[in-house]
Automatic annotation (TrEMBL):
Taxonomic lineage of the native organism: Bacteria, Bacillati, Actinomycetota, Actinomycetes, Micrococcales
Pfam families xref list: TetR_N
Chain residues forming the annotated DNA-binding region: 41-60
Signal peptide extent: none
Protein's recorded name: TetR family transcriptional regulator
Length: 210
């Protein structure tokens, strides 16, 4: 982790590492992109890099740390926001983050256990906070965390929508028990991006209200 922040200090004595920390993270990202997050183990990443499992511990000491490094690598550097309004900046930011989740669907499986500790996700938050800093009454940090949660949630829905649809009997049972939901159940919910856009409209309208 200290390496990512440029605070690793003097190099340790001994043989020079064969791989860099970004290379280890990139190998893990490739595994997750190809086979899902569940395929990422320290042993599998070591095998991907042509090293022993014991050697991988020179770079990371747990899967939790490895996943943090993977998230940093997958989300990449934050976008440059160019919209003329704060609402436009928020939409631009959310759209760029959604694209990262589209490229790496496993990101939606990563459950945050606290504030991010790696540079790129923090850079994303800082970028939106700065873009909203001149708007009176708008708490940029809260907005960034809220939009991050929205994008993650709808990306998870997108991933789940690729699985098999519910059986017909379940649809019928739900309609019978909860008739008020019948019309909604027959709507086309297959486009999570449309639902995300609606959620953004609601959130931004609420923030703009006096």
């Amino acid at each position: 982790m200290r390496v990512l922040w440029g605070a690793e200090g003097a190099a340790a004595r001994g043989p020079r590492p064969r791989q860099s920390l970004p290379q280890v993270a990139e190998a893990a990202v490739r595994l997750a992109d190809a086979h899902g997050l569940e395929s990422v183990t320290l042993a599998n990443v070591a095998r991907e890099l042509g090293m022993t499992t014991s050697a991988i511990y020179r770079y990371v000491d747990s899967k939790d740390v490895l996943v943090e490094l993977m998230v940093d690598r997958a989300v990449g550097e934050p976008p440059t926001l160019t919209a003329a309004t704060w609402q436009g900046s928020a939409r631009e930011w959310a759209g760029a983050l959604r694209e990262r989740y589209r490229r790496h669907p496993w990101l939606a499986q990563v459950t945050p256990s606290g504030p991010p500790r790696v540079p790129n996700p923090i850079g994303w938050i800082a970028g939106l906070v700065e873009a909203l800093s001149s708007e009176p009454g708008i708490d940029g940090m809260r907005v960034a965390l809220l939009l991050d949660a929205l994008v993650r949630s709808y990306s998870a829905v997108s991933r789940a929508s690729q699985s098999a649809p519910p059986p017909e009997w379940l649809t019928g049972a739900l309609s019978a028990r909860f008739p008020v939901l019948t019309s909604g159940m027959h709507r086309d919910w297959s486009d999570p991006d449309e639902e995300l856009a609606f959620a953004l409209d609601v959130v931004l309208a609420g923030l703009a209200a006096p």
